[in-house]
Amino acid sequence: xxxxxxxxxxxxxxxxxxxGIDTFRDAGGLWEQHRVEDVATPxxxxxxxxxxxxxxxxxxxxxxQKHPNAAHEALARLDREWEGGLMIVTQNVDDLxxxxxxxxxxxxxxxxxxxxxxACDVRSPWTGTLIERPACPDCGERSLRPDVVWFGxxxxxxxxxxxxxxxxxxxxxxxxxxAVYPAAGFVRNANDLGVRxxxxxxxxxxxxxxxxxxxxxxxxxxxxPWVDEILAA
Length: 233
Ligand code: APR
What we know:
Layout: E1 7-11, H1 14-17, H2 30-33, H3 36-39, H4 42-47, H5 49-63, H6 70-81, E2 86-90, H7 96-99, E3 105-107, E4 110-117, E5 123-125, E6 144-148, H8 158-167, E7 170-174, H9 186-192, E8 196-201, E9 213-216, H10 219-232
Helix pairs in contact: 6-10
Adenosine-5-diphosphoribose binds near residues 179 and 219.
């Protein structure tokens, strides 16, 4: 492992599951409780903004009650101690990576703790609700929506993510089902670039076959030993 200098880590809902945040596609997950078409598309927001805003208000409030777990803390330690390149690309809209102390984090699907004004395009820190259609702190318009990438919308900071993949020596995927593109395609991009690939997941994901190595188990049990290993190498 001594030839590893630059690392890209992709995380999904599984890394926050043990903090008590529902994943999307596991048994009893969010997409069993709510239809994607009702709460996570621009068309849904157009059709029934109240339903969508209530859904994200509920989630925004819930995540503020949760705490980082040992997997978040291990990745924050990696961020502090790894002298090479590191990008933690998260599909998650919670702030548990940052609350654990990680800094080199990219939220490709947005974040719950911002509101995005569709009138002036400004994103403002937001911990409260949006259902009452509050005014944008910047332009005063009542055009705020959750700063979350919905199905059919372009994920954020893709150029930076692909640039980091091109520089990477190791790509590690943690707690994601490999069901949603473009994130699910990163492992194949990495393969094409000759980057070493490792999956850390509770069970084999839809993309497991593309990884050089897979280790299965709860994130709090498989991530800390991997971080110890790579920092000791
Ligand atoms: N530790 C490790 N992995 C876990 C754990 C755990 N404790 N619990 C569940 N997992 C794994 C599951 O096995 C599954 O492979 O995490 C994955 C969660 O998959 P999804 O629920 O599909 O979540 P994710 O892959 O992050 O979804 C991708 O889809 O709904 C959209 O935009 C949303 O960012 C999300 C994207």
